[in-house]
Design goal:
Elements: H1 4-32, H2 36-45, H3 48-54, H4 56-75, H5 85-122
Helix pairs in contact: 1-2, 1-3, 1-4, 1-5, 4-5
Length: 123
């Protein structure tokens, strides 16, 4: 049961940061490079993307807080794996994957943030 929690955190992080990319970063980049028709097609075929983009401030805030909390939980001092060799190996494997998920999510969040807020103000 304890080993399922890291996987849940990883998937939750990837889901929320992917949402920030879908709602905000990808449409802005596509419009910037001249693919406005693709964005219009996406908006008509996947209407919930418009709802996500209306709440992009909340999306980025919640995703950023989740990434920060997961980073703290993963890198906090005093975190130890069990002494049982089998559980210790599983804990180390889960810890490696958690670190990867946190970094991937952080990069995705940063790309989305730059696209949604920095590029928007520059263009």
């Amino acid at each position: 049961m304890i080993l399922d929690k890291p996987r849940t955190w990883g998937w939750l992080l990837l889901f929320t940061t992917s949402g920030t990319l879908l709602c905000c970063a990808i449409p802005i980049v596509l419009v910037s490079v001249g693919f406005g028709a693709v964005v219009a097609s996406m908006a008509s075929n996947v209407p919930w993307l418009i709802t996500l983009s209306l709440y992009k401030g909340w999306m980025f805030s919640i995703a950023g807080l989740l990434i920060a909390f997961a980073g703290w939980a993963t890198y906090r001092p005093g975190r130890e794996c069990p002494t049982d060799p089998e559980l210790a190996a599983a804990c180390a494997r889960a810890d490696t994957w958690n670190r990867r998920f946190i970094w991937i999510s952080g990069v995705m969040w940063s790309v989305g943030f730059v696209s949604a807020y920095v590029l928007e103000s520059l263009l």
